[in-house]
Amino acid sequence: MKIKMLVGIAGTDFALSPNEETDRFSTKEATRMIEAGMAVPAAEDKAERATKKPAPEKRG
């Protein structure tokens, strides 16, 4: 589960800053952090798609 940290947190092999997104925690741990107010679920990135503009009409 990907979460966005609201507070800084560090461990023996990691350090996370506020506003940093991570998926290093299990779903159970991430849920506990969200419930404790330390993190929020990360928003899914919506990919932008290029669209082709219609060809201009040719009237003669």
- In order across it, which strands form the biggest sheet? 4-1-5
On the 0-100 scale, what is the average pLDDT? 90
- DSSP strand content: 15-25%
Shape: rod-shaped
Query: Which value, in Å, is the CA radius of gyration?
Result: 21 Å
Total strands: 5
State the end-to-end distance: 59 Å
What's the number of helices? 1
Largest sheet: 3 strands, antiparallel
- Determine the fraction of residues in helical runs and give it as a percent range: 10-25%
Helix-strand string: EEEEHE
* Poorly predicted ranges: none
User: What structural class results from the helix and strand content?
Assistant: alpha+beta
Description:
With 60 residues, this protein is an alpha+beta fold. The chain has 1 helix and 5 strands. It has one helix at residues 27-35, and strands at residues 3-5, 9-10, 15-16, 21-22, 39-41. A hairpin with a 4-residue loop joins strand 2 (9-10) and strand 3 (15-16). The radius of gyration is 21 Å and the shape is rod-shaped.
Helix/strand layout:
Blueprint: E1 3-5, E2 9-10, E3 15-16, E4 21-22, H1 27-35, E5 39-41
Antiparallel strand pairs: 1-4, 1-5, 2-3
Question: Tags for this entry?
Answer:
single chain; 60 residues; three-stranded antiparallel sheet; 5 strands; rod-shaped
Summarize the structure.
The chain is an alpha+beta fold. It has one helix and five strands; from the N terminus they run E-E-E-E-H-E.
